[in-house]
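During the second year of the project, the team shifted from modelling isolated chains to modelling whole assemblies. The rationale, set out in the original proposal, was that interfaces cannot be judged from single-chain predictions alone. As a representative example for this report, we include one of the complexes processed in the last quarter. Its constituent sequences, exactly as entered into the pipeline, are reproduced here:
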Amino acid sequence: MYVAVKGGEKAIENAHAWLAEERRGDPGVAELSLAQIREQLSLAVNRVMAEGSLYDPDLAALAIKQARGDLIEAIFLIRAYRTTLPRFGNSTPVDTGGMACDRRISATFKDAPGGQVLGPTFDYTHRLLDFKLAADGAVPEAPTAAPRHEPTPHITKFLKDEGLIQDEPASDKPPGDLTREPMEFPADRPLRLQALTRGDEGFVLGMAYSTQRGYARNHAFVGELRIGTVAVEMEIPELGFTIEIGEIALTECETVNQFKGSKTEPPQFTRGYGLVFGQSERKAIAMALVDRALRWEELGEDDLGAPAQDQEFVLSHADNIQATGFLEHIKLPHYVDFQSELELVRKLRREAKERLEPREAAE
Amino acid sequence: MNEYNFAYLDEQTKRMIRRAILKGLAVPGYQVPFASREMPMPYGWGTGGVQVSAATLTPDDVFKVIDQGADDTTNAVSIRKFFEKTAGVATTEETEKATIIQTRHRIPEAPLRADQILVYQVPIPEPLRFLEPRETETRKMHSLQEYGLMHVKLYEDISQHGAISTAYAYPVRVADRYVMDPSPIPKFDNPKLEMDAIQLFGAGREQRIYAVPPHTRVVSLDFEDYPFEASKADHACDLCGAEDSYLDEVITDDAGDRMFVCSDTDYCRSRREAGHQGRLAQEDAA
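Output from the structure prediction step:
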C-alpha cells in the first residue's frame, strides 16, 4: 500500500553522513593535509582559483579536499564563499610587464630580450607513467640560474613599435563586473574577458579548438606566453598613495593573429588576449583564441556563423557552475509536470485512435 | 548561526533584489534583470526563489516551502532548513499559517490571502526562449509586443495534435501586456494566477525577477475555437476524496496498479483531518 514518502529530512542527513565517510575513504590510509593538496596538486588548485574567481590557494585546497577531487564541485564551493565576502576596493591594474617570470616563451621569435625560459613545463616530457613515483617521491634538486631583475618586455611591444600590430584603445573606464551586474548583450571586451577567464576550461578549450579547425579560423601565433608572479597594488584613499597588498601568480597569453587592412589602412596583425590565475596555460591560450574570435565585429570581419564568434552563445554557456547546476537539476522531482504530460499524451492518443478507428471500420 | 547575515544575503544585496521586486510589481510580467548571487545551493535548484525569499523575509514571517506541492520532498526540506538556519524564522507546513510560501511547480489548492506572498522558483523565465534562443531578440519581441510567434506555435500544435500540446509552463498574458512564463506549474494551476496574494518569480541562473501583483488580469493564451482548458487526472483523491485538486499518479505494485493522491500534501492532510475519506483511506489507516 502506498504510504506518503515522509522522512526526506532524515534521508538527507543520512546521505550527508555517508558522503562524509566516503570522502574520507579508508581510515587506515593517512588523511590528506591541505598543505599536501596545495603543494602537490597545485595545478588543480590553480584551476579552482581561476574558475572560482578567488585567489586563495589554501581555500582552494580545502575546497578540493571537501569536494573529493571533483574540481567543478570545488569551484562551486569557492564561488559560494566568494559571494559572501565584502568588497573594500579595487586594485590598480597589475603590470604583467614587471612579472617575475617562471616561464616565458614566444613562438614568433627565436629569441628576444628576456629570453626563452621554459620553466616548469610538461611540454617536452615523454608521457610515460613514472612508476618510481608510486614508490618514493624524492626528487633531485633542479639547477638554478640567477633571477632576472629588470622587467621583461612584452613581445607585442616590438611589433607595436614598428606599427605592425593593431593598437588597443586606451581607456580609464572601470571594467564591468558580471558578478555584480547582470550580463547584458552585447557585452564589451572587458566583460567578455572576465567571463572567459572564469569560464570552464573544457568549454573554452573546445571553443578555441573549433576556431583552429575552421569554424571562424583566424590562425593564431603564440606571440608570448608568460607565467610568474606580479604585485597587486591598491590605492588607499586615506593614505593618498598606492601600496602593495600582495602577490599573485598569473598566466598571460598574447596571440598574434592574421592581419586586416583596407584601402585606407595598411595591413596590421591583430591580437587575442588571455589572462588567468595561477599556472593555467592551456586555459590562457584557449582564452586568447576565443577572445580573438569574438572580436570579429570590431575588427571588421564577416560573421561566419561560427559558434566561437557568437558572444551570446559563448558567454551564456561558458560558466560551469551555471551549467552543472541546471543540468543536474533534472534529477529533482518533476512528477507534477510529468503527470500533466502523461495525461496530455493519453488524451491525444485516445483522440487519435478515435479518429483512426472509424476509418478502419469503413475500409 | 552568526557568521552570516539574517537570511544569508547581505543587506546591500537584499536592497538590490528588493528594487528589482518593486520594479517587477510596477511592471507586471516584465522580466527585470538583477545581479543574481552565487548561492550555496546549485543553480537550477531554486537559487532565484531563495534570493527573492531572502530579500522578502522578516524575522516575524512564517515560512513554508513546497516542491511538487509537497512539503516533504527533498529539495523543499533542504531550502526550508537553509532558512531555519540562516534566518531563524518559524516554518510551517500549513498553507493557512504561512506568510511567505516558496514553491516549485505548484500553486497551493487553498486560496491565498492578501497578507501572503507566493515565491516561485523559475528555471527559464523567458516564455519565448524555445522559439528564439537569443536574449537580444526576445527582449526586442517583448518591447514590441511581437507575440505572433507564440500563437503560431500554439496553432501548429493544434494542426498536428488537434490540441495545444503544452501541459505545464503554459504561457499567460499579464495585465494585457507582457507574455509571461508562469514557471513549470501544470496548466491546471493557471486560473489560480489571479489571486489576492503577491506573486514573485525568481530565476537565479538567468538573473531575472518578475511579479504579478494581487488582482492582476492573467490570461492563458488560447484561441476562440480552442479555448484554454485547465486539466487534471479524471479521478478523485484516493486518500481524501477531493475532486477539485491536482493529483499525482502513483504506481502501487508490480502489476502496474495506480492510485491518485493530492499533490498538495497540506490540502490532503487538512481534508482528511476534517473527516473526508477517499477510496483507499481505510486501507491506508490500517
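Residues 247-285 of chain B form one domain. The longest strand of chain B covers residues 62-67.
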